[in-house]
């Protein structure tokens, strides 16, 4: 980078208040790399991710490649450019140099006995910089639940994890931990995306102060969580996942295995908090979903959960930073068709579609209400949203929760808007005619609003003339 490409004297770069802030900005990712560049050619594995320097207890995953050429960047570029008959094999070969496994001591328990655990893992998409918040989340997970069950953790990142991250995080649990890079294809901009349009649309959202409105990495994250996480080669032998994020609290001891509960009760998707999405991030997600339902001729007993009385999206969604769900469902052709249909519109980039409304509307389209489970006994916090089981005054149950003192913070009490709809929902066979009616009603309402606006402008102009 030369000063010719970034002129520090231009008004744009004089924004930071002091020199330190300016230097931080100058060297930050967004200044050294163009976040809107379509093809990132700058993949240089950092020295801090030289896994050959890890102690011998850090190994390759069983059955995965173990030896690699010296020039790993070239190796990766070659794999990406090659024609493979199996995508799974290609992704596996591509990421293998940056996949490291740590066998936890808890595995000894299962050596000479039948392993009663489900085919499941706790999965975490995370950046190196979130190490402290992640340690907190793992501590929570272990203390409340996993010290009894020892489910493995799998960590994903679009950049190689550093040796420091791997060594620190593997020490937070006795369970197995695996650290992996994400395939390039899962975190990149498809050819058909118009980057000029993307940039323009982002600046509109920034003007409107929409959170993450101008962030490309946030869009990659949402698109990855919507349509790619379940395609990762490390998850192919698993049936269920529990999604964990940095900086969460779990409040209640969980004494049974929720993965087992999901399987035995034929549950496919589960949640703990349901809330409304920012409408400006998903202006056309509902219409696109209705068009998909028409195209696929779907009858969907759960979709009405998400419709308001005007047949528009009520913005309710399951908050996906907590999820326990079936990987087979995400891997089904129905789900994948839905994701591909959404993705073909480019609106993960042009708008800011979140994985939470996408997963929720997919559940609305494809699942029966009784396949969706609310885990009442899981107390949870992320960001400012919190919920826990409130025992009724005359209950004989013993509380297993350490809960915030301020009872009014419980989202079950103050955030009943969406959860109330879910609790009182009666299955309704929403079919393509409902979708067509909904689209018509939405267009008519829009037309009425435009007409009203034009009438108002005419009235205002004539009032100004008089
Ligand atoms: N590796 C990686 N993880 C990310 C990135 N952006 C977000 N995440 C992870 O994706 C999840 C959701 O991101 P977060 O910032 O919590 O989004 P929010 O909850 O919608 O505000 C968290 O687990 C983050 O650690 C990224 O650019 N790279
Ligand atoms: Mg989050």
Automatic annotation (TrEMBL):
GO terms for biological process: cell wall mannoprotein biosynthetic process; protein N-linked glycosylation. Signal peptide: none annotated. One of its GO terms (cellular component) is Golgi apparatus. GO terms for molecular function: alpha-1,2-mannosyltransferase activity. Keywords: Transferase. The keyword Transferase applies. Belongs to the glycosyltransferase 15 family. This is Uncharacterized protein. The lineage of its organism: Eukaryota, Fungi, Fungi incertae sedis, Zoopagomycota, Kickxellomycotina.
């Amino acid at each position: 980078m030369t000063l010719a490409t970034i002129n520090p004297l231009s008004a744009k770069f004089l924004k930071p208040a002091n020199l330190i802030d300016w230097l931080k900005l100058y060297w930050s990712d967004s200044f050294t790399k163009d976040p809107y560049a379509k093809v990132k050619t700058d993949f240089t594995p950092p020295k801090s991710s030289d896994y050959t320097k890890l102690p011998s207890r850090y190994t390759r995953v069983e059955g995965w490649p173990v030896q690699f050429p010296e020039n790993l960047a070239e190796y990766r570029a070659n794999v990406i450019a090659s024609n493979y008959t199996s995508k799974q094999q290609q992704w596996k070969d591509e990421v293998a140099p940056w996949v490291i496994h740590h066998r936890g001591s808890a595995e000894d328990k299962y050596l000479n006995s039948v392993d009663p655990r489900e085919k499941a893992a706790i999965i975490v998409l995370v950046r190196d910089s979130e190490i402290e918040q992640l340690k907190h989340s793992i501590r929570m997970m272990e203390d409340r639940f996993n010290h009894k069950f020892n489910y493995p953790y799998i960590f994903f990142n679009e950049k190689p994890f550093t040796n420091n991250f791997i060594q620190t995080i593997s020490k937070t649990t006795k369970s197995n931990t695996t650290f992996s890079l994400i395939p390039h294809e899962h975190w990149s901009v498809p050819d058909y995306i118009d980057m000029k349009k993307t940039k323009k649309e982002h600046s509109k959202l920034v003007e409107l102060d929409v959170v993450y409105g101008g962030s490309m990495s946030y869009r990659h994250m949402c698109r990855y969580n919507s349509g790619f996480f379940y395609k990762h080669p490390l998850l192919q032998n698993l049936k269920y996942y529990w999604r964990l994020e940095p900086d969460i609290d779990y409040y209640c001891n969980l004494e049974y295995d929720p993965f087992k509960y999901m399987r035995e009760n034929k549950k496919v998707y589960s949640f703990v908090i349901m809330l409304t999405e920012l409408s400006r991030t998903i202006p056309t997600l509902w219409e696109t979903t209705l068009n998909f339902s028409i195209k696929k001729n779907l009858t969907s007993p759960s979709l009405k959960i998400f419709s308001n009385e005007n047949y528009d999206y009520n913005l309710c969604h399951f908050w996906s930073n907590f999820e326990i769900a079936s990987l087979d469902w995400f891997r089904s052709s129905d789900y994948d068709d839905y994701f591909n249909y959404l993705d073909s519109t480019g609106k993960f980039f042009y708008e800011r579609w979140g994985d939470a409304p996408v997963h929720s509307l997919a559940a609305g389209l494809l699942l029966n209400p009784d396949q969706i489970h609310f885990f009442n006994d899981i107390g949870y916090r992320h960001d400012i949203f919190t919920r826990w089981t409130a025992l009724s005054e005359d209950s004989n149950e013993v509380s297993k929760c350490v809960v915030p003192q301020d009872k009014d913070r419980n989202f079950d009490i103050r955030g009943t808007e969406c959860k109330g709809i879910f609790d009182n929902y009666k299955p309704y066979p929403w079919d393509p005619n409902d979708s067509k009616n909904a689209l018509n009603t939405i267009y008519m309402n829009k037309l009425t609003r435009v007409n009203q606006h034009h009438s108002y402008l005419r009235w205002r102009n004539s009032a100004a003339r008089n």
